[in-house]
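User: Hi! I'm working on a homework problem where we have to compare a predicted structure to a textbook description. Could you give me the structure for the chain below?
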Amino acid sequence: MLCTPYISWQWVHGWPLITYWRDYTVNRIGVGTAPGLLQFLLGLLLDLNPLMFPVLLLGLAYLLFHPEGKKYQPLGLSFLVLLVFYSFQLLHPRLLVSACFPLLAAGAVWLEKIVIGVTFSPGHIRGKETFRLTLGLVRVYLGVILISSALLAPLSLSLLPSGALKKYVAVTSKFTVGPANYQLTELPFHFALRFGWPELVEKVAEVYHRLSEAEREHCVIWTEFYWQAGAIDLLGKEYGLPNAISTHLSYYFWGPDPKRRGVDPEIVIFLGTSYIPRTAFDEMIPADFLMGNPLGTRLAKYLPVYVCRKPKRPLKEVWPYLKNYN
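Assistant: Happy to help. Predicted structure tokens:
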């Protein structure tokens, strides 16, 4: 019953999730960033911390086979199912990290049971000495995990200034698995995504306010990707910009008229490298060019800004042919 609304929505809209994963896999193969199974596992361990692997395996065994852990067996089974699915779909290993946390907790529980059980078993005459030795080894292991996690943390969390981060990545990239950065940015992709959005919105605002007041009344801002549309929706209010539209992913379902005014746009500001608007407008004039922040990705820099006029037909009619689940 919990899944029924979601499945119904997917069915009504033509199963967009299946289309998304199919396109995702094809694109990963096309740009050469698809890891093999071994690379996927190594990438997962790197994202997680390789020194936690013994605890992870112990937790998986505990959940699947131990009498006390079997009541939580679905957690272990779901991890295996996701591991197989993500590997065959050629997804990024980081997407599976959150599924590892229950296994780590289970592994820690069983490790504690093993240590206590072995140390204080009836056959151990020198139980206290063994306990001290075992406790010392556990403390050393935990200390090594803490130190290594601290060294790996700057690759995932915003702990270093951008200049220091670039130097740190230059050193640690030697130990990463597979192509570290397929977007050709100075920083790893998940860091580069945090730069360039204010510059992008400011450039679109400049083009928007060059239009006459009458044109702005019937103007919408159309972006190639949802990242750009989200930036305009979030930061554009300061510049008096209308909400953006896009045919990319979830933005597609909101349509070309998200405010439901029932008025088709007569003029569109388009941001992106695609010539998709030519299917809907006779006139597509370059209005400006966004250089962007050098630390950002190609999604937020080196982008032309077009002003499109003279619609060929209502945008809502061509919208279904322009959806992009890429």
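For your comparison, note the following. The longest strand covers residues 281-290. The chain has a mean pLDDT of 81. Good luck with the assignment!
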